[in-house]
Amino acid sequence: MQGKPGINYNRKQVGDFILEKSIGFGSFSTVYEGRNVKTGEKVAVKSINLHRINLNAKHQTNLKQEIDILRKCQHTNIVQLLHTYQTNNHIYLVMQYCSGGDLHKFVQKNGPLKEPVAQYFSRQLANGLFYLHSSKIVHRVEFLHNQLFSKINICIKKKKKNENNNKNTTITITITITTIIPITIITTTQNQK
């Protein structure tokens, strides 16, 4: 099922969801535009190839962390995980579909943002960031591609800081649904003085 964005495949069904066309891909996954067969709701479905991810224990851990984090984040300006399904070959993450695409494409298509539009986007982005920060999660806004919107919904890229035994551990997790950036977790440990 992996392929180029925009190509319609044989409409595979996963649970209550039909995968209609691919809209993005990465090293271990392909993201599809999908639809709930019962309600007609449009969704994004991230299909993760277990054969590829099972080759590396670190990638398995990263995937578990991604799913746990997505389940915990519940905010109107954060892309929501709706369902998960697992087969022998794939894990499917059914997520909220952001019909407006990403901010990068929006700016490419429409040119620089006018001040009222920039204020509107900034306000929604700040609301989502405030939620993440209050949950002790830092969102690193590195790419316009990670700013998806119907309204503005943050595609999570976060940095979480935990203190254990006088050590700071920083975990950076990249979760995207329309870009080709793979999930990345970087862990650094420094002794506090």
Description:
With 193 residues, the chain is of the alpha+beta class. The protein has 2 domains: 13-96, Phosphorylase Kinase, domain 1; 103-187, no CATH class. Helix content is 25%, strand content 37%. The protein has 4 helices and 12 strands, in the order ββββααββααββββββ. A 6-stranded antiparallel sheet has the order 1-2-3-4-6-5. Strands 7-10-11-12 form a 4-stranded antiparallel sheet. The N and C termini lie far apart (51 Å).
Write a concise synopsis of the structure shown.
This protein has helices at 50-53, 57-72, 103-110, 115-134; strands at 13-14, 17-25, 29-36, 42-49, 81-86, 90-96, 137-139, 147-149, 152-154, 157-164, 167-174, 185-191. The chain has 193 residues and is of the alpha+beta class. Residues 1-8, 149-154, 156-161 and 166-193 have low confidence and may be disordered.
Count structural domains. Answer: 2
- Broad structural category: alpha+beta
- Share of helical residues: 10-25%
End-to-end gap: 51 Å
What is the N-to-C succession of helices and strands? EEEEHHEEHHEEEEEE
* Strand-residue proportion: 35-45%
Binding site for ATP: 46
GO molecular function: ATP binding; protein serine/threonine kinase activity
Organism: Reticulomyxa filosa
Keywords: ATP-binding, Kinase, Nucleotide-binding, Transferase
